[in-house]
Amino acid sequence: MTLWSQAASAAAKTPESRNRYVDFLRAVSIMAVISGHWLVASPFVDAGELTLSNMLAERPWTQWLTWVFQVMPVFFLVGGYSNGVSWSAAQRDGKPYAEWLSTRLQRLIGPVIPLLVAWAIIGAVAYQVGVDQRMIKAGSQMALVPTWFLAVYVMVVVLVPLTYGAWKRFGMASFWFLVVAAVIDDTLFFAADLQVVGWANYVFIWLSVHQLGYAWREGRIAGPRTALPWAVLGAVALALMVTVGPHPLSMVTVPGEGVSNSLTPKLPMLALGLVQTGLLLSLEGPARHWLSRATPWTATVLVNGMIMTIFLWHLTASSLVVGLSLLAGNVGLTLEPGSGAWWAIRPFWMLVYVVALVPFTLLFGRFERGSVGVRAPSWRLVTGAALVCGGLALLALDGVGGDGLLGLRLFALSLPFVGAVLAGVVRVPQRA
Hints:
single chain; two-stranded antiparallel ribbon; 69% helix; globular
């Protein structure tokens, strides 16, 4: 049975009560993220030396495109909707928090473990054969960039009982409270030069967008009349922040710039989330009608069935392609990034990247379907999740290369594995 036929079979069993637009937005967003990453990364060989240049720095006009390709707010919006559905169902059915969280962590953490194992092996082998540690660090850091999102999102999931409880009790006030906290945090970052407080906006900004997912689920934001005002509010705020305010134009980090809107998150990310929420939810009605057709819904089911695998491995696949191009005599890597010829061959490169991603998806997609892990108490699940998130954040920042045994950052690498075992996502074989 082909992947399409499997997806078609699953699609045909979809209950009428399911909001297919949620799954569709998740699938489209992942494609936008992947395309953006593949376009931004612009490796270039000049005088025999490989430069891992960044298109946003090479051609500053491309920073406007990040307003389209930066769709992380959509993931948290969709996550709020989905987590609201699953947690309310768990409460209705009397399912305890530990059982609910265990299932979610299996789906989120399980797929990232093979990626970390692969890059630990790649880093160790590269170190043994004499590859420059700077290249190991740069290559692995680039490939592991997607794990920062997982680090944040896992903790958002852990906090669902609190955030959903706040929503049920306070409604939209729970959203505005987080917005005010984010504004205060941003003000302290810029006005008082307290840069360390910027890390708190990982909580305030992404949880606020997550709260909008609850609002969407309960019909508080539905259709053009109620959705478009959110888009207007976000657009005005975003324009003021990047023109009058101190925030940069790009919605992702640009090498060489002193301030980033995404690392750590700043208010423009929240404003962008409002724009995306308003625009996308204003289109929900016609989109759900279109998704009632077999073909678009089957395609959506197909992508969602392997979405974490695609997301986690797409930069590893493109890194492999670049490495093979170097070995083949710098094929396609000598064109100046941003030149007409460089843009002309982008479709070809994107196609090659997709082809390279297919084997990874087929090989590691099974880890996404989850398995029956060890039933762990809540304290172990939460502690394990925190360790996983800490390790993923460190690896996303600096990769696997370091001064430890085999040239690896053993502490950062060990955290996700210890956390996964503690949470029961990875089982340790027991002696008979």
